[in-house]
């Protein structure tokens, strides 16, 4: 397919649009409100919108923005406290094929997918890594309270559940959650910087959440640490990070999982009461066999806690696989006998490489599959800080 150039450059598919000039104007005004100067703006009759922006520091940013209108109209069979955005470019017949977003391979320009509430003066930033290719023809929703909070504070980050839909059998996010950033016009450049970082580092939803929260106070690129952001967040050197990635074959979903396993392994090897730690790297197996000093062998599965704390103030952790086997919906959920302990890494909600340990014998079971663990587990007071304090059922002993 031949794509017309935008800003004299090829950015993939360009769509002709009508009735959206106000979105184009909104974005231009947002650049100015956030301290930039528009050097170039693409034709308002085309989407995406390309803006060449210069900052006071003489830094220049190219923004390729896919804007979609947000409305507060009442939608049949939907809750009344929601706003709605519709992903619609091109003809309805074209929605059946893939619509990848344009990317700058050099990473100089940043691609963004945003919903715009022109009346409320709020933008909702969607995760460009998760929403590429664009699922044309579908709607996305957000709670009105979240949007209103973004309008009042200028920058608001939240996590929403991501579920399978009519166009996909699996959730868009492998963690079942996605991070949404709501912000006002004067924070557009901050959001562009966040998106550029998140895209280049392929941050998953929990790390994107943490990075977005760090921007809440108006952090600038000049105030960021000179070390690579992953070195700072993971408390490892770049060489150690690469060694972790190279040594684990299950990191296609997220590097963060491998880093959590690495920290857990080091912690367990230093823990009093632990005699030996064997890390497993086999599909369909738990992560560690840990032999305790008293002879018990505990099968340990490492999981990352959600960055969002429950309404009752407790942490929570997702305990399920990224996908199910064909014709076997129960296979996505772990059997009760699959492992003895879940080690929940608390980095996402706390910024610290700490763990809480919970016995599977004390966890909730799935409502529809009683021999399987429920996918979301609350980290209750029964979870402990030391592995040797975990209560367990039918422990395995060395012969």
Automatic annotation (TrEMBL):
Residues 62-191 form the Methylase-associated X1 domain. InterPro entries: MTaX1. Pfam families: MTaX1. This is Methylase-associated X1 domain-containing protein.
